[in-house]
Design goal:
Layout (H helix, E strand, L loop, with lengths): L2 E3 L9 E5 L8 H17 L4 E3 L6 E6 L5 E2 L7 E6 L6 H11 L15 E2 L6 H9 L1 E3 L13 H4 L1 E2 L2 H5 L9 H10 L2
Amino acid sequence: MGVIKKNAGRWNGHIPYEYHTSVATGSPASKWLDQKIKEFNDFIGKEIFRPRSGEADYAVFDLVTGNCNSAIGKQGGRQVIQYKEDTGGMTVHHEMGHCVGMGHENFHPDYPYKTKFTKGSIPELQWQRNHTDYEAHGDFDNDSIMRYAAASLEITLTGVELANDARRQSMSKGDKATVLYLTT
């Protein structure tokens, strides 16, 4: 169902947000992001992300051309969500999941038993350390927006796993349950 970071800060029901200056008001970029935030909230069935009105702890959406990034869970103060525009908007939804407190589904305790690693982009010590920083919230969710495709991690998959390894095109029921758990 989901992977959450141990000891991550929790938001109090919702996440106030604003746009970085990289997202000009009324621009196509701001309209695109407005729609992606609406899609996220609509899928969850609750206004998780809402416009900031003076809160001290808040998220800032920053449109970048490089790597996407977001701290996991509430950090306190200004917290940046770096994202890129993509066709389906799944990158920004993935980064929003991090901001809520979700980790990569690949760190689920059941995940390593479903794959065989090749020498890839995550060093073994980093993988082991990351596994200890996270805990499962339910069963492994192959459909999670928080799961990296094996190709991006240079993992060898076979059979059914390979057939089910397409990049996520929407959030899963497990993602919804985890977001609601982390924001209630």
